[in-house]
Automatic annotation (TrEMBL):
GO terms for biological process: methylation. Keywords: Methyltransferase, Transferase. This is Class I SAM-dependent methyltransferase. The keyword Transferase applies. It comes from the Bacteria.
């Protein structure tokens, strides 16, 4: 049994995915056999309810200059982050000399909009990014204090799909306390555990995501470190997320949305052992159904290609035992992945042209959270008789 990284109470394991590689460790065929593996297992804290991984990967091993994901590759995500920036400019960055900080800005799409509005900004981004002002350090109390000394207090600290990746979350809150103005806010959006349970989207569970937040667990976490959860907003991106707004206790009133979402979680019993056990049973069924489908298609001589060499796909292929014998290749738009093989499963990654040059009979959609955008773009595949295989919330063919 592990102890909670937030409150130190016992954490009870509810699923073990087995031995897994780093989800973004795409390697050349010559590097096969020289990979780092760890146990991908997940549990829930018996006290604060925080859902978390049981093994921790050092952040410098996960996030570095070769990190391959770029938000701007998706028009949906680019529009989402641009709109997020415009909201901050309208309601949070309205003072005489506002200052916004982003933790993990990826390719800088949010801060580019802030920059273009003439607002001071800074990104804590160890993977490197162009076009916006950056600081290469990881965000904590020491690095935040250095920025406050040079730039003054921040009105907004923002993070998207980043806070859940940081095991030492106390260091993040301490950094926010050191850098924020008295009325400043820490705003972050991450995958919502309620959606993971509801959709059985087990592939959201991989090494980069250490925490799987609920509104209740985030409120407990905030209070543990002297902050308060001021607002919570559901977002449709990435299969369902929540945007949390934290401020120092007493700095602003709590919105009614927090109480509504807390009541819904209480009704759904999100972290109750019976709910977690039922989730585990559904995940096991998906693995069985997906393997049986792929094996049947292979026996019938059907060609199946993967679509989207995502971090999520690493959980699916390694947990379900899917290799090149069942899915000979996966197509992806990221040039740095081309010519390499997927982590652990060693499925060759090819550029998008490999998909359309000779359409397969079926496409296994690993990037299911962008299904609408992808299917619209690949209408010719369907017109040619192609079919999509999707495994969330259950295995089905579209």
């Amino acid at each position: 049994m592990s102890n909670c990284r937030v409150c130190r109470a016992p954490v009870h394991e509810f699923f073990d995915f087995g031995r897994h590689p780093l989800s973004q460790a795409f390697i050349t065929p010559e590097q096969v056999g020289d990979e780092f593996f760890y146990r991908l297992a997940i549990g829930a804290c018996e006290s604060c309810g925080m859902v978390q991984l049981l093994e921790e990967i050092p952040p410098e091993q996960l996030f570095h200059k070769g990190y391959p994901y770029h938000s701007s590759n998706s028009t949906v995500m680019r529009a989402h982050f641009e709109e997020t920036a415009r909201r901050f400019l309208a309601d949070r960055l309205t003072g005489p000399d506002p200052f916004m900080v982003e933790i993990g800005c990826n390719d800088g799409v949010t801060l580019q909009t802030v920059r273009d509005a003439g607002v001071r900004h800074l990104a804590f981004e160890p993977t490197g990014v162009g076009g916006v002002r950056t600081h290469g350090a990881f965000f904590d109390a020491e690095s935040a204090a250095e920025v406050r000394a040079s730039d003054g207090p921040a009105d907004v600290i923002y993070a998207a799909n980043t806070i859940c990746d940081i095991p030492d979350i106390g260091a993040v809150i301490a950094g926010a306390d050191a850098l924020l103005s008295p009325q400043g806010v820490l705003v972050f959006e991450d995958p919502y555990f309620g959606e993971i349970i509801g959709r059985t989207s087990f592939d959201q569970i991989y090494d980069e995501h250490f925490y799987f937040f609920t509104v209740g667990s985030v409120r407990s976490m905030a209070r543990h470190f002297g902050f308060e959860l001021l607002d919570a907003e559901w977002l449709p991106v990435h299969g369902g997320q929540i945007r949390y707004t934290l401020g120092r206790a007493g700095s602003a009133p709590v919105t009614p949305a927090v109480a509504r979402l807390l009541a819904a979680e209480e009704n759904d019993r999100l972290t109750d052992p019976s709910t977690l056990a039922a989730f585990a049973d559904r995940v096991t069924r998906i693995r069985t159904d997906l393997r049986e489908l792929l094996e049947r298609l292979a026996a019938d001589g059907k060609r199946v290609a993967g679509y989207g060499a995502t971090a999520k796909s690493s959980t699916v292929t390694n947990y379900c035992g899917i290799g090149p014998d069942l899915v000979p290749f996966v197509c992806d738009t990221t040039p740095s992945k081309h010519g390499k093989v997927t982590p652990g499963a060693h499925i060759p990654v090819r550029p998008p042209a490999a998909f359309s040059d000779d359409y397969p009979d079926y496409a296994l959609l690993f990037a299911w959270n962008h299904a609408e955008e992808i299917m619209a773009k690949e209408e010719a595949f369907r017109a040619a008789g192609g079919k999509w295989i999707i495994y969330v919330p259950e295995v089905h063919i579209v």
